[in-house]
Amino acid sequence: MVNADEDKSAYSIQTVDLTKVFAKKKHRGVLGFLRRNVEKEKSKSEGGEAVTIALDRVNLKVQSGELFGLLGPNGAGKTTLVKCLATILIPDGGTAVVNGYDVLKETTMVRASIGLVVGGERTLYWKLTARDNLMYFASLYKMPRKEAKNRVNELLEMMDLLDRADERLEDYSTGMRQKIAIARALLHNPPILLLDEPTLGLDPTFSRQIRNQIRGLCRDEGKTILLATHYMYEADEMCDRIAIINNGQIAVVDSSNRLKAMVKERELVEVACVNPPVGIEAELKAMCKDVDIVTLIQGDEAKSTPSRIKIIGEGAEEHIGTVIDALRRKKVQITSLNVGMPTLEDVFIKLTGGAKLTEGGEAETERHEAQ
Amino acid sequence: MTQSSLRSNYFVVWSEVTKNLKFLSAYPIVFVFWAIFPIFWFIPFILQGQALVGGLTSQAFAQVAGTPEFIPFVVIGSVLNSYVLSSLYGMGESIRREAYQGTLDYVLASPCNKSFILIGKALSESFTSTIFAFSQLIISILFFGIELTIGVIMPILFILVLLILGLYGIALVLAALSLRFKQAHDLAHSLEYVFYLFSPVRYPVESLPLWAQAIGKLLPLTYALIAVRSLMLLKQGIAAIYIEIGALVIIDTALVLVGFYLFNWMENKTKKSGTISQY
Known about the structure:
The complex is a heterodimer. Chain A is α/β, with parallel strands linked by helices. Chain A folds into two domains: about 10-255, Rossmann fold (3-Layer(aba) Sandwich); about 260-370, Alpha-Beta Plaits (2-Layer Sandwich). Chain A is about 40% helix and about 25% strand. Chain A is built from 13 helices and 14 strands. Chain A has helices spanning about 30-45, 80-85, 105-115, 130-140, 145-160, 175-185, 205-220, 230-240, 255-260, 280-285, 320-330, 345-350, 360-370; strands at about 15-25, 50-60, 65-70, 95-100, 100, 115, 190-195, 225-230, 240-245, 250-255, 270-275, 295, 305-310, 335-340. In chain A, the strands form three sheets. Chain A has a six-stranded mixed beta sheet, sandwiched between helices. In chain A, strands 2-1-4-5 form a four-stranded antiparallel beta sheet, covered by helices on one side. Chain A has a four-stranded antiparallel beta sheet with strand order 12-13-11-14, sandwiched between helices. In chain A, α4 (about 130-140) crosses α5 (about 145-160) and α4 (about 130-140) packs parallel to α6. By secondary structure, chain B is mostly helical. Helices cover about 80% and strands about 0% of the residues of chain B. Chain B has one domain (about 10-275). Chain B has helices spanning about 5-25, 30-55, 60-65, 70-100, 105-110, 115-145, 150-180, 185-200, 210-215, 220-230, 240-275. Chain B contains eleven helices and no strands. The interface of A and B includes residues 124, 127, 143 and 145 of A.
């Protein structure tokens, strides 16, 4: 429980031991339903049901006007946390307070306090125009009609889409639809924005535009922003503080610089290669036992993104020869070799025990680096 | 409720209705269907009736129905049943469509009262079924000599509103089941035949065995049909149908309360299980 003595409004967002558990669905269809019920009885008699812990006693404090990053791989619990804060999901344990309102007891006030971007472009009515979409959602936020009309025009202008306001969204590009999704979140001018992967699937130009807009909303309008992302550079560049989340648990919360300082004394060797064979990671780990981390980040052949082997820790450089020999023996093509200081990604790898980053995240990282 | 909140709630209902009508206008082929389908809907029943009784009137039919005219009897059944069909399929499908489009999360995470969104959905469905019903009625007046005097229009509209309210309760139940089970189409289909069988859509309720009549008395369509036929065919005044009106009010209240309770319960249940936006 949030301490009664503590001022609830001291933080824009505060969670205490927030927990969300989902029952595992192994079987589908009629037979699945019957089997599931049999298993349910069985697991009950064995003292428990098969579950996934999506959020495991999450404690967060986000200050007013802060751009707060929630960084984690897919399935880490980012969207679940955002949905719990947005009252779309009901948590199973703990408490969450948004803008001073309890997400369980004061849902209407929480909803009026937040602007939500989750699920991207698919969450709009594609058969309606941009203006119709925004007018509809403005009505759900109890905005008077005249005020809604003005606000919609203002936001369309801000998104540089006023001239296409009366076109159906099915004729928009992905990036344009995402801009409308952000405009929707801003309709009622909420003090808090919950943004879940707002640049997912966007090209570099739109990504940059949207990142600039998010930064501007925080800097110029003083909005509190919770930005859930799996893009390292996005969190690194934009956020005042970052929480790294993995398997539903917050591993650490700090500023990007301080997080990087956690591993900065260490050496980093990064070998980029094409199609490394299965099992190479375990093999290299066995060869480089004295370093802290040896991890393989899978690339994406379709996007010409190479895989990367990272060796982090004191004496990492001494293992360059060993790694290259091992890869050559397996006839793996090496495309580059870098020796340097660890980045936020390496902090992430260290804290999550080498949790795999997604292909999308890597591709985006590469693209960003190329800009 | 303050004037501004009343106005904002009206804006929610209005926006929901216009949104749904704009969806319809995105698929113009629907209007062609609406123009043709009403004709095919009840003509087979009329022809079947004619074949059975050997003409447009029947004394045997009059003994159970109170009127010898089979065609107006069937037309009224068909027109009112249009509202049943749109209620059974409309709202559940609308909720399912929102989930499929990915908009359901946003609709349910907005601070407005969800009842007004649901009322908006129900009104859009009623709008489409009213057009459907009017098409049938116009065809009946033009081609089958159905009489509709001005004096009975208001009482009929009153009965229609009561019918729609009860059907709205059933639609809420189906929408709630759509939230939980992701589709309620088959249940709606089964309910459609429950209405056909136990309500006097094509035959008088007296034709049913007593146990079936008892089930029919739980359905709002039964009372609406008896009331409208009394007004139109038996030329009775509104005082003669006070029992039907009373029954409709009681059934409507029960259905709407159960509908809202079930919808809120299912919404919470799916928010807890994390399946609310699945489809």
